[in-house]
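Our preliminary data section would be incomplete without showing what the modeling component actually yields. Below, a chain of 194 amino acids is followed by its predicted structure, encoded as tokens that our downstream tools consume directly.
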Amino acid sequence: MPKLYVRNTDRGALDRMIAAHDGELWLDLPRDEEDQEEYYRALNTAMLLSDWADELPDARICERYSVGPGDVYGMVESVNWLLHASGELSRMFATAFYPRVREYETCMKNGIRRELLPLVRLRGIGRVRARRLFNNGITSPEAVLAAGFDQITKLIGHGIAEQVFAQLEKTVKKPAPSPGEDNMAGQSTLSRFR
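Predicted structure:
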């Protein structure tokens, strides 16, 4: 995938990142100066993607890495393609990794931490609305239902709240009728007498 360029002013932050995550990085800093440049570029790209998935605002990412919003979008799209391909390969050859790779793909696509996964699966809920709900103690679709329409409307707006509740009402199963209850309530009058 394409990698960010590294400015001389970036080297200090990259060296601090290497020191802070010494045992976690798969590859050590190469000794050859030409290979070091490629290593720093890959690390700088990984840091941008990490900031994106940690929900850093777009403007802050653009400022920190001296890129435009289109560059961030391009990086995210490239890594999403790689994650999707990795997911398909893991589904075929390493099934234990498949669910995690899919989670990472969703997180990267939406620019969210894993804690927001249940909320962004709702149509109309992206990273900003999901974070707003989560910060107000609403962490799942069930919690959305429990909070009620009025509370959710205050947090995400009337139109989106209507869409979300319409989705949730379709997924909530209606309870089976109790013994002795009219089991024909949903049928037309003619079919009751056949």
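The chain has two domains: 8-100, 114-171. DSSP finds eleven helices and no strands in the chain. Preliminary results of this kind motivate Aim 1 of the renewal.
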